[in-house]
């Protein structure tokens, strides 16, 4: 079975072809991605209307590229999967529209996929895939959640952010420091030149006793420090602030992940979503989990941020288990807001 995956929920157009047999982990045949970062950079964030229009331009050329790289053609596709939500409504409609049109034209079934389920399962495409059950730390631009994952489709929410997401905390802090968009990677690069102990920033909800997160207060603390430093803040102080901010976010993510492992008694942690690319987070998690004889799994770096491979994979894994069916229902809708636990 070959599944074509189309991702268009935000600022990346991703298309991929995944192959799966009745059992075993599906494998990736090819994937292609177009990032809109350059286009949105001038505005300091994603402009939804521009995102939708760019997805329209990119999705078919990317599909052609993927099929050619996989030495396949349209007739080889068995199922067309697309991101149904959550995400930007207009952007989601582009992927859903193209996927359903393609399915209808080819007479092949289509299937809507939850974007976060794609992130959560993406480590299964890595060379050392995890086994169920595990704790998942989902850290993207819009979500910060800890889940207990017993199998595909069996997700129990353990805790989540009550305000900003971890990626948002990176992005908003970076923006205040004049580092551009997306801020996470830029802030992480600058942090390499700073000392994380320079600024004493809050670790929100660190000792709350539950597995929820809060990052809105951190953003305010960064703004306060920047105001204190004044308009002609030197590069070194900025680097110190970047390192301190990153450390505050990472420490909370690590502490809560360890608490989730302890409370569930599980020994495996899966980290997924864009912030999972952060090197400091990976270093700390690796070190702390090793001390506790726990394993940590990450997606391949190229599949940490949004991509079509994770969408095709999630569809294939659901189909393999018979917990979802792809149908000839081409009357698509999208779900800009969609709770993963309700999938
Ligand atoms: O999962 P993703 O690609 O998109 C969403 O579904 O939101 O995550 C994007 C987020 C952004 O907030 C971005 O700044 C952050 O992931 N990010 C990082 C790094 N790479 C991406 N944050 C910290 N360090 C990184 N290296
Ligand atoms: Zn994402």
How many strand elements? 10
> Order of SSEs, N→C?
EEEHHEHEHEEEHHHHEHEH
Beta-strand content: 15-25%
Name the hetero compounds present. Answer: 5'-O-[(R)-(carboxyoxy)(hydroxy)phosphoryl]adenosine, zinc ion
Total number of distinct structural domains: 2
User: For this structure, what is the CATH class of the largest domain?
Assistant: Alpha Beta
Radius of gyration: 20 Å
Assigned CATH architecture of the largest domain:
2-Layer Sandwich
Strand order, largest beta sheet: 3-2-1-4-5
> CA-to-CA gap between the ends?
23 Å
Output the number of helix runs.
10
What would you say this structure looks like, in words?
With 343 residues, the chain is an alpha/beta fold. It has 2 domains: 2-121 and 303-342, Nucleotidyltransferase, domain 5; 131-298, Nucleotidyltransferase, domain 5. It has 10 helices and 10 strands. The strands form 2 sheets. It has a 5-stranded mixed sheet, sandwiched between helices. Strands 8-7-6-9-10 form a 5-stranded mixed sheet, sandwiched between helices. Bound molecules: 5'-O-[(R)-(carboxyoxy)(hydroxy)phosphoryl]adenosine (KG4) and zinc ion (ZN). 5'-O-[(R)-(carboxyoxy)(hydroxy)phosphoryl]adenosine (KG4) is lined by residues 10, 119, 140-142, 167, 170-171, 182-185, 188, 273-275, 277-278, 305-306.
